[in-house]
Design a protein that fits this description.
By secondary structure, the chain is α+β, with helices and mostly antiparallel strands. The protein folds into 2 domains: about 170 residues, Diaminopimelate Epimerase, Chain A, domain 1, CATH 3.10.310; about 140 residues, Roll (Diaminopimelate Epimerase, Chain A, domain 1). About 15% of the residues lie in helices and about 35% in strands. It has 5 helices and 16 strands. An 8-stranded mixed β-barrel has the order 1-2-3-4-6-7-8-16. Helix 1 links the parallel strand 2 and strand 3. The longest helix is centred in the middle third of the chain and has 17 residues. The protein is globular and about 55 Å long. The termini are close together. The mean pLDDT is about 95.
Length: about 350
């Protein structure tokens, strides 16, 4: 049995297998077959692989040296189905992005700095860019530290992510329908894309508070049916055709904050309630919140002319910074930023079936 070099890492509130592109097949069909086998899909428990039996822990990062000017490494994100034999490159993952810089140093793709290392990353899925900064005292990645993020026990070293070119990541602009607000099934929604396609709706318009637990949301079949209807119709309005069986767009319900944040959120991916909130999804929601007249702006606890948004989610808080130029009819995003953490869990050899 031939094994494949693999590093399992926690990135943000997700967990995934990180591979060098040179260690896995370049042909997508062969690559996908291998990754499904390594992760143990399709099987709800992924009992015969290294997957974690949940979409948040069934992820893959493929990293390689970049040929793009001013870029150190390319990062391809692949979402591996759990109960289904699917491999999707339709979206980015901002959580696994937090581990790409440290992984690149660990694999020798980028030389470590004496105290801190900066890695310039191209997100292959959408051809957007990020800069990751993290501590490397003595030229070695240090995963320990005092930064805590909601949804992860304990604390670790901070990974500061600066995001660029994420506006309109799917190719249809920051506001993919061309409108600040659309009405679908009688519900006002804002369709926004600042790194992730998200349909933002007020929770109250769908008959919930927006403060429910994940279990309560998952048990509400009528709510899930309405969310599916919203996202399918929104996908058509955004120019993506029939999105019924795709992962995008995600849907986020927003509500007034209850724990000192800017806004409360409940996110569905696409119909499974998220245990927290995705990084790039949060960046997109924060962008909508900052747009006067967009869904979310009216219920957010905004304090004047701010660009730092504290997003409440089922596991706690996520702080997002969006530098937005909303002075014209066509708002533009200058940059976005977020702080995550990452940790190496094992480094070794994974064996496919």
């Amino acid at each position: 049995m031939t094994g494949i070099r693999c590093m399992l890492m926690r990135g943000g509130t997700s967990k995934g297998a990180y591979f060098l592109a040179e260690d896995i097949p370049a042909v997508p069909s062969q690559r996908d077959e291998l990754l499904l086998s390594v992760m143990g899909s399709p099987d709800p428990r992924q009992i015969d692989g290294i997957g974690g039996a949940h979409p948040l822990t069934s992820k893959v990062a493929v990293v390689s040296p970049s040929a793009a000017p001013g870029v150190d490494v390319d990062y391809l994100f692949l979402q591996i189905g759990v109960g289904e034999a699917t491999v999707s490159d339709q979206q980015n993952c901002g959580n696994l992005l937090a581990g790409v810089g440290p992984f690149a140093v660990e694999r020798g793709l980028v030389a470590a700095g004496v105290e801190q290392t900066t890695v310039r990353i191209r997100l292959v899925n959408t051809n957007s860019h990020a800069v990751a900064r993290f501590p490397t005292p003595g030229g070695v990645v240090d995963y320990s530290g005092g930064t805590a993020i909601s949804g992860v026990p304990g604390s670790a070293a901070p990974v500061v992510l600066d995001l660029a070119d994420t506006e309109g990541s799917a190719g249809h602009g920051l506001l993919p329908t061309g409108n600040l607000v659309d009405v679908i099934d009688g519900v006002r929604v804002t369709c926004v894309d600042n790194g992730m396609l998200v349909v933002v709706a007020n929770a109250g318009d769908l008959g919930v508070t927006g403060h429910e637990s994940v279990a309560e949301l998952q048990a509400d079949g009528a709510l899930l049916a309405r969310i599916q209807s919203l996202r399918v119709q929104a996908g058509a309005l955004m120019g993506f055709g029939d999105v019924t069986d795709t992962l995008m767009p995600k849907t986020t319900l927003v509500a007034p904050p209850v724990d000192g944040g800017t806004i409360s959120t409940r996110t569905f991916m696409p119909l499974l309630p998220h245990d927290s909130v995705g990084v790039l999804g949060a960046v997109s929601v924060a962008t909508a919140v900052l747009l006067d007249g967009a869904v979310g702006h009216d219920v957010a606890g905004l304090d004047g002319d701010q660009n730092q948004i504290d997003i409440e989610h089922p596991a706690g808080h996520l702080h997002v910074e969006v530098d937005l130029d909303a002075s014209s009819d066509r708002p533009r995003v200058r940059r976005s930023g977020v702080v995550r953490t990452a940790r190496k869990l094992f480094d070794g050899t994974a064996f496919p079936r």
